[in-house]
Amino acid sequence: MASDKSPALPVKNAGGRRLQNRDRLEADILEQAVRVFAESGYEGASIASIAERAGLSKQNLMYYFPSKQLLYQRVLDDVLDDWLARMESLANEHDEPRDVLRAYIGAKLRFSREQPWASRVYALEVINGAPLYGAQIRDRVVPLLRKDIAVFEEWIAQGRIAAVNATHLMFAIWAMTQSYADFSAQMALVLDRKQLTRKDYEDAEILLTHMVQAAIALPAAAPGA
Amino acid sequence: MASDKSPALPVKNAGGRRLQNRDRLEADILEQAVRVFAESGYEGASIASIAERAGLSKQNLMYYFPSKQLLYQRVLDDVLDDWLARMESLANEHDEPRDVLRAYIGAKLRFSREQPWASRVYALEVINGAPLYGAQIRDRVVPLLRKDIAVFEEWIAQGRIAAVNATHLMFAIWAMTQSYADFSAQMALVLDRKQLTRKDYEDAEILLTHMVQAAIALPAAAPGA
DNA sequence: GTCTATATTAGGATAGAC
DNA sequence: GTCTATCCTAATATAGAC
């Protein structure tokens, strides 16, 4: 009975895990880390819970990621990499504003649906005032948003869309699409489901596209001009 | 210099504080608690940091709020009380849909501006899946949202607004207004300010009102109908 | 190069002093 | 009724074993 409560199970870790290469193991850790950080926030998340889900000891995890903060920043780096890769193909001079915006909303919504943990980790960091990742946001996200806003303003100057506040329009698009990851729990309660369905995302895309397109629609041109 | 590093300062607490009545002291604690929870999340917030800001020891704080979870729930209760008091005066059968929506957006934006910590604490809870407050959200928030959505649907049935998806329209309004508290850090970075100004909120209100009103505008009626 | 035993601090909570 | 000294667990991180 003395061995009954033996802590930390010196069970030798079965030997199989350690044979997979480092990259693979790091990927496993990061996959669990993004979920745990999304569920509890940076300070609430514990190395132990991440390690447990990834199937190794917390001390072992810290061999691969020497500190909690480094792990967290790596998680956010990956979140941004994924998001930027999806979004940068848009907002070119491109075709019609309507089509560009439809594609933009679709891509952002898809990210919320396919990577809800990533969206939430990012949102948590921003809500908390970006204490640990503000510099990266300033360097990698803000320039992109500014570039998109400049595109809107160009369209306005060319008379292709209505003269709305381009900055706040961008904020609105970001907020509406982001909320389908961040606020999905409340949405599911309103819709009386366990979680949002594919159909819900389709309905969302239709409404959001309609809202943005209605907002930028030029007033019906006076026929005689 | 030996006293230089004395921990915990057994300074007798000055005697003045304890003379104020319990209600006043609880209000002080709650005011600091909402800030700390907003900055660090539930698990990240520590009793010690809340107590320190409120000017008492953590053990003493726990005399007034016996557990962290009770303090947290009390904070969220107060957040909801404040929010509900501001919102329930709206969404009556009321005048024109345009005016009702303008007032609704204005009130929700004002809450984001005046009570950013309250908004953020609530948002953090929802993002984390509402593990500690889901029942209250279901009982107190969801019915209100459903009622508002039903009002939209009534308007649609009466042909007073365009036939949009009322549920997602409500989600969009919530997301856009909420984001001026939750994402203000990122917005400030984009706008290159330390924090959002009154003018920013005015610009926001104009754009959001325009977006929603454009979305619900009836297609230009055929003149001869 | 990979993993584990150990140190150290800070967390929430209780029992007891005033 | 109000506040404080103390307990115990769990957190991150390091030093050292294999």
From TrEMBL, chains A, B:
Record has DNA-binding as a keyword: yes
Organism the protein comes from: Janthinobacterium svalbardensis
Residue span(s) of domain HTH tetR-type: 23-83
GO terms for biological process, alphabetical: negative regulation of DNA-templated transcription
Protein name stated in the entry: TetR family transcriptional regulator
DNA-binding recorded as keyword: yes
Keyword annotations: DNA-binding
DNA-binding region: 46-65
Gene3D superfamilies in UniProt: Homeodomain-like, Tetracycline Repressor, domain 2
Pfam families assigned: TetR_C_3, TetR_N
UniProt-recorded Gene Ontology molecular function terms: DNA binding
